[in-house]
Amino acid sequence: IPQVKTARLDHLVQLDHDLLDDLVARQQGAIFVTGHFGNWEMINLTLGRLGYPLVGVAVKQKGAGGRYVEWVREQTDARFIDRKASTREMLRLIKSGHFLGLVNDQDALRHGVRIEFFGQPSSRFKGAAMFALQTGLPVVFGACLMGPGNRYKITFAPISTDNLPDDRDEAIRELTQRINSQLERAIKDHPEQYFWFHRMWKSQLQ
Question: Model confidence over 63-72: pLDDT tens digits?
Answer without folding.
Answer: 787 777 777 7
